[in-house]
């Protein structure tokens, strides 16, 4: 893991990891989380890995550990209307920059999963969730918070089953779009309507 070499030299060095979630969704916001960890947090992070390899229950448990132990993190999101106006790339960049900016202090090392941003001397890491604990943890945090939002909002848009698909383009979701059209939280710029 990226952190291990850094912490060998300085166990008190803070490492920030950031990751986005919801980039490819048909509906709802794009979101990102950033989290700041140091060596003394390691014992709390034993179960942290790629968020896609963890159950929703386990992801929620990990976020609870973060909150209970006052590990610093932040979350940022931009809704479908912003994405439709400015495009997904700019929205992606802004959620990452904002989430990092909320917790960044000079001297922190910053790692971002795959995506390149210009600020904070951030290093883009290929397969970041497998190679950097801080990125994996950020991904878990972002996913839990965004999933909770999509489950909550699904009560107002029952026909799209957001509680199950979280806005991603599943078969059931595509069928609902064909039948009911686009809701006001769908990304119109993604040209989702069948031709």
Explained architecture:
The chain has eight helices and five strands. It has 195 residues and is of the alpha/beta class. It has a single domain, classed as Nucleotidyltransferase, domain 5 (2-Layer Sandwich), CATH 3.30.420. The protein has a five-stranded mixed β-sheet with strand order 3-2-1-4-5. The longest helix has 21 residues. It starts with a helix and ends in a 15-residue tail after the last helix.
Number of strands: 5
Radius of gyration: 17 Å
- Which class do the helix and strand fractions yield? alpha/beta
> What are the segments in which pLDDT stays under 50 over at least 5 consecutive residues?
none
The ordered string of helix (H) and strand (E) elements is HEEHEHHEEHHHH
CATH topology descriptor: Nucleotidyltransferase, domain 5
Major β-sheet annotation = 5 strands, mixed
Backbone shape: globular
Proper CATH architecture: 2-Layer Sandwich
Number of domains: 1
Work out the helicity level.
Answer: 40-55%
Distance between the terminal alpha carbons, to the nearest Å?
46 Å
The CATH superfamily is: Ribonuclease H-like superfamily/Ribonuclease H
Mean pLDDT: 93
Number of helices: 8
Strand content: 5-15%
Strand order of the largest sheet: 3-2-1-4-5
């Amino acid at each position: 893991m990226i952190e291990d070499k850094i912490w060998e030299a300085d166990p008190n060095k803070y490492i920030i990891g950031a990751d986005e979630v919801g980039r490819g969704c048909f509906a709802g916001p794009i979101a990102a989380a950033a989290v700041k960890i140091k060596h003394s947090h390691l014992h709390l992070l034993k179960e942290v890995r790629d968020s896609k390899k963890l159950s929703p229950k386990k992801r929620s448990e990990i976020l609870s550990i973060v909150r209970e132990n006052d590990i610093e993190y932040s979350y940022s999101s931009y809704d479908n209307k912003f994405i439709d106006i400015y495009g997904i790339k700019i929205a992606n960049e802004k959620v990452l920059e904002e989430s990092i900016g909320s917790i960044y202090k000079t001297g922190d090392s910053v790692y971002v999963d795959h995506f390149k941003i210009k600020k904070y001397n951030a290093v883009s890491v290929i397969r970041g969730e497998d190679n950097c604990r801080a990125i994996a943890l950020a991904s878990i945090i972002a996913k839990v918070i965004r999933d909770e939002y999509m489950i909550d909002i699904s009560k107002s848009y029952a026909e799209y089953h957001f509680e199950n698909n979280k806005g991603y383009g599943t078969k059931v979701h595509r069928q609902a779009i064909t039948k009911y059209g686009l809701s006001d939280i769908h990304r119109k710029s993604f040209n989702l309507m069948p031709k």
